[in-house]
Model the fold of this input.
Amino acid sequence: MEQLDEKISDVFGELSIYKSPTINTMFSNKTLPSFIKDWLIKKYTMSNRQIDKDGMIDFMNKHLVGSINNVKRKLTVDNETVSLLSRFRIETDIKNNVLRFEVPDVGIKISDGVIPKYVAEENPTLKDGEHWGVISLMYEPPVGKAKGVINLYKFKPFQPYLVSLEMFREFRKQFSIDEWINILVKAMEYNPYECGEYGFSSVDKKLLLISRLLVFVQPNLNLIELAPKGTGKSYVFSNLSKYGWMFSGGKVTRAKLFYDMGTKAPGIITQKDYVAFDEISTISFSDTSEMLGALKGYLESGKFTLSNFEGTSSAGIILLGNIAITKEGKPKNACFMKELPPMFQESALLDRFHGFIEGWDLIRINEDILLDGVTINVEYFSEILHQLRDDASYNMVVSDLIDVPDGADTRDKNAIFRIATGYLKLLFPHVQNKHDISYDDFENYCLIPAIKKRAIIKEQISMLDPEFKNYVPDFTVKR
Done:
């Protein structure tokens, strides 16, 4: 693994980063996503790979939202400027022709904050939706009838480097498939060592872990994962990308997810690459029948209609839940879809999910598998995954390589094509046409895993509804 670390450093250069459990202890009392941690680690890593601990701690104490009290008082009463490392949300105020922002963690409401035009012009990425960065704030007192506002007068994003898919493809060409699989595991902040029962003891287990990234790279891909507690599913979807959203229990409304008819504001699903429903058994919906109808339409076509609003999105949906297992590590109930809430046990809805991840075959997170070595910067990695979503060339490669059997169910075909395309993007991002990959590699790493994930969905639906076939037709590679 030391040899792979050196190779990652040589190939990726400044886009690589050294991580260890020791470094992570510096964030033990901070609730920060991985891409923010990586930004801080990179910012305060010296040439000898040592961390400027004093500098990092001082920065976090000054700029992290969690360590700052009474931000609004400092701005308004004490007339101070404040800089925060924080998430914030932007919304265009069409009526007044201004760009507004809010910082919920410190009580700055959307009606309080304004982004000056020169800041928006200097930072074209500042569009409606959620962002992360270092924001500098100042208060402008009321003038005449105009009320006072908080100005975001400076913004520093987390991308001091070029994010180029072409360059990433060139990087990939320099690694074998086994090396690349290990790199992806490391990018997810785990050690890909052969650690027996305490680690990822086979390529299959590593690929199963990597399959959690499918919704990061493939538009409108809908998956389900059931796993025992402590296998890290929540961590992946809430920490590795700022382009995802995770609901963790509680009530989910149609307005929050799809469209708010009162404010005429599109919901979360139109703003993100994926939406994860964690602890799905603890999530409730304000109007189950209304949500069921909206979900059916969206899962099928990526479109939804509410009142007079027609919305579209490429966001995938993934359901995450816990499952009871036997001593042998297998589900206690053969029909494990019964672990889902009743709403999600309807066959017509389940059929719209493309694949299933068998999370019980993944190991429980332990100290042995926490990353200690060189990896790709998560911030950079998440940007690459985000860009891979929109590259349609991979769809053509998959279409050229898969032979669809006569009479194949359209949903089966769409599911297998989407999952296989996701695997192609993750494992072989350098492939631009069918001649760039061997038939065996495509079959073993893309097609067979895709068929297996879809087959589980079909088998489970047939247990709930005998009208459904319990198998997937024989999709093969065109040779």
